[in-house]
Amino acid sequence: MSSLAFTLPDGTRRTVTVTRLLNAGYAGRSQDDVAAHVAELAELGVPAPSTTPALYPVAPYLAQQTGSVPAQHGRTSGEAEWALVVDDTGDLLLTAACDHTDRELEAYGVAWSKNAGPDVLAGQAWRLDDVADRVDSLTLRAWVTGEDGTEELIQDSTAAELLTPHHWAEVLRERGELEPGTVLISGTVPMRHGVDQFAGRWRVQLADPSTGNEISLGYDVVRMPEPIG
Questions:
Q1: What is the pTM of this model?
Q2: CA 12, 143, 103, 146 torsion-angle sign
Q3: Coil, strand or helix: which one is 60?
Q4: Which one of 44, 50, 81, 140 counts the least CB within 10 Å of its CB?
Q5: Per the record, a Pfam family (predicted)?
Q6: Between the CA atoms of 48, 86, 190 and 41, what dihedral angle is there, to the nearest 10 degrees?
Q7: What is the pLDDT of residue 190?
Q8: Alpha-carbon span 199 to 144, nearest angstrom
Q9: How far apart (Å, rounded) are the C-alpha atoms in residues 157 and 135?
């Protein structure tokens, strides 16, 4: 398990002791587009899921609020996402997240790759009820910083591209899992072609254009020493 803390716009703090962490996959609103994406990944050797959208259980301790992510090699990268959090009071929160994924391991199994890196969450959150009427207009963006120190936009979309938090809340309710301690990561939006995802730093922003409010996170990807033996 891990313990997370979030600051709401009014300054109040909410906590969650994570007992269940789930990563949605292939969770685009258009399942026709998802099918095309599955076919593209298959050509790269990534096994197709048995059903879409998919839902992958992840070890709860991998839900982290951190500024540094260790990586065993140079082919790991983040994914801009939102996270649905059931806090310790049972309230539903929405925040920014970045699913850091091992791309080498992904070719052997997506579920394995999801358990090889953390889901990094921001330190701010909104009550889902407070943004429920405008979820689709929320923007989801990510930037990467390469070796030359230049930050480059790699993902730029809206939450309308993804299945909604309310959709996943209902899925969790049907599974008996919409309870304190559950965190669900949304799945991601397309990356821009030509931008190197294997960068040394990731930054993710979830923003509300109607209010100007935003939630952001950032972390460095730190290569681990080579193993001995």
A1: 0.94
A2: negative
A3: helix
A4: 50
A5: DUF2848
A6: -10
A7: 87
A8: 6
A9: 13
Block residue for tokens 């891990």 = 2
* Single-letter amino acid, residue 155: Q
Question: Taking the domains of the chain in order of start, what are their residue ranges?
Answer: 2-134+161-190
Name residue 147's amino acid: E
Residue-level pLDDT at 47: 72
Quote the CA–CA distance of 202 and 218 in Å, as a whole number.
Answer: 6
CATH of region 2-134+161-190 = 3.90.850.10
pLDDT in tens, 3-47: 999 999 999 999 999 999 999 988 888 877 677 666 766 766 777
Q: Provide the H-helix boundaries in 60-188.
A: 103-106, 110-114, 128-131, 165-174
Q: Which residue has the tokens 């080579």?
A: 226
Q: How many residues does the chain have?
A: 229
Structure tokens at 109: 């199994």
The rounded distance, in Å, linking the Cα atoms of 106 and 116 is 10
Please check whether residue 5 is in contact with residue 65, taking contact to mean a CB–CB distance below 8 angstroms.
yes
Please state, in angstroms and rounded to a whole number, the distance separating the CA atoms of residues 183 and 19.
Answer: 8
CA-nearest of 185, 178, 183, 228 to 206 is: 185
CA 122 to chain centre: 10
Q: Is the dihedral of CA 159, 163, 165, 166 positive or negative?
A: positive
